[in-house]
Amino acid sequence: MKFLPLLSVILIITFSSCTTVRVASDYDKQANFNTYKSYAFFKPGIDKAEISDLDKKRILRAIEADMTSKGFIKSENPDMLVSIFTKTRENVSVYQNNWGWGWGPGWGYGWGWDPWFWGGNYNSVSTVTEGTLYIDLIDASKKELIWQGMGTSALTKDVDKKQEKMNEIVGAILEKYPPQIE
C-alpha cells in the first residue's frame, strides 16, 4: 500500500505538467466585484503593448468573447476598463543524448571494431518563444487596478492557429475572474 501514495504524486505531477498555459492572478480585496457589469477597452494601455496590431486584435477578440460569455456588456460608459500588456522571451533547451548498446571497439572479431556496437552522442538544441499576457481590470470611476491576471505559454508562428492560441491563453487567464473570495 506504500506504492499508492507514490503513484498519486507521480500522476498529479504528470497531469499538472501537461497544462499549456501557466496562470496566476491577483486582486484588490476591497473591491466589490459584484458591482461590475460593463466594460470597455482602455486604449492608452493597449496601445503601449509591444506586439503587432494583428496580435492585439486577436487578444481583444478573445477577451471580448470571454467577457460576453461571463455576462459583461461592452459599453461607452463602463464600470470597468480592460487593458493588456505583454512580454516575450526565448527559451533555449539543449538535450544531450548518450545512448547505444554493444561491446565497443576492440571486442568482437579482433579488427579493433565491433559490428554490434551501435549508438553515440547526439545533441539537439531547440528554441521556443514564450509569451506572457497580462490582463488588467481597472475600476473606471476610481481609475484603480482591481484585478490582474497573467498567463504564460509557448507561442505559435502558425498564422492559422494564432487566434486559437490567443483564445486558449485569454480563457485560462479569465477563468480566474471573478476571484473566489472567501
Can you give keywords for this protein?
182 residues; alpha/beta; 6-stranded mixed β-sheet; 4 helices; 6 strands; 37% strand
Overview in brief:
This protein is α/β, with parallel strands linked by helices and 182 residues long. The protein has helices at residues 3-16, 43-48, 53-69, 159-174, and strands at 22-27, 38-41, 73-74, 80-101, 118-139, 144-154. Helix 3 packs across helix 4 (159-174).
Written overview of the protein:
About 30% of the residues lie in helices and about 35% in strands. The longest helix is centred in the middle third of the chain and has 17 residues, at about 55-70. It has about 180 residues and is of the alpha/beta class. The protein starts with a helix and ends in an 8-residue tail after the last helix. It has a six-stranded mixed β-sheet. The model is unreliable at about 5-20 (pLDDT under 50).
Q: Uncertain regions: pLDDT < 50 for 5+ in a row?
A: 3-18
Helical proportion, percent range: 25-40%
Oligomer: single chain
Secondary-structure element order, as H and E? HEEHHEEEEH
Main sheet strand line-up: 1-6-5-4-2-3
Q: Based on helices, strands and strand pairing, what is the structural class?
A: alpha/beta
Q: Looking at the structure, what is the overall shape?
A: elongated
Radius of gyration: 25 Å
User: What's the pLDDT, averaged over the residues?
Assistant: 82
Note the total helix count.
Answer: 4
Straight-line distance between termini:
36 Å
Q: What's the count of strands? A: 6
What percentage of the residues does DSSP assign to strands (E)? 35-45%
